[in-house]
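Question (not urgent): is this output format expected?
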Amino acid sequence: MLAVVLSSSGGPEVLRPTDVPAPVLKEGEVLIDVVAAGLNRADVQQRLGVYPPPAGASEYPGLEVSGRIADSNGSRFATGAAVVALLAGGGYAEQVAVPAGQVLEAPTGVDLLEAAALPETAATVYSNLFLSADLTAGETVLIHGASGGIGTMAIQLALAFGAVPLVTAGSNEKLRFAESLGARTLINYREQDFVEEVRRATDGAGVDVILDVVGAKYLGRNVDALAVNGRLVVIGLQGGAKAELNLGALMAKRASVTGTTLRSRPSVEKAAIMAAVGREVWPLVAAGQVRTAVNRTFPLSEAAEAHAYFDSGRHTGKILLTTGRI
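Got this back:
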């Protein structure tokens, strides 16, 4: 089968389409003929050599796919069923083997190719905003990086569950895209102080939850932007991994800081998250309350070009790699 192999660490040019052996199923896994794979920042970090796959996972990039069941291996899925899957790696390939618990039938009403934009983003956002931070109706949530795959999903899920999203992005064009999804408090972090804008939008109270992909660079300011009993959830380190924290400020607000990753969680935890996504998110997708936000597709063989486009920062929403299957 064709897969995208990393020849070394570095720029997009290290992504090499290569003929490799097809995956061999293990107990509890299913085999999927891939239709499309989502491109995520974690793939870029793996390409750069700073985010290796967990032990035992495929060394090929790719954390989410859509496709059809090629071998159900005794699972509940029928051969040929249209599905999506959450992976620890290996999505940049024509076939993937994945634990059956990390697979869901594709949501009703969504094109199978575009469905590849859903599993990793939906699982990340739902697990962090609702299972970890316990975001509830009427609360406010600050979403950094609002125009990317995670951000666009977070805006839509926050609104669907009755919360109020405030968002940051680096250009007015990206903020307009976030606005088209329903966000109303729009903060250009290149031109505005998000702490001051949050205080202005919340009458000085601060936000109940922050979903942060930046990390160290924003840590202190995020705490400043929190409300009393606020929850900061850090899911990315684009702005570094080490920073000083004023514990007095955190304690005064009775606030909490949680750091999480999805990729390295045990399969049983991922299965539980995907089951929750199937129960809580898929009906919203089927009803049109949550939609895919696909910006552009590239053939699998053009993974390097797709990464170069991602690195340019011009995209809004998701970038997909396609195998040519339907």
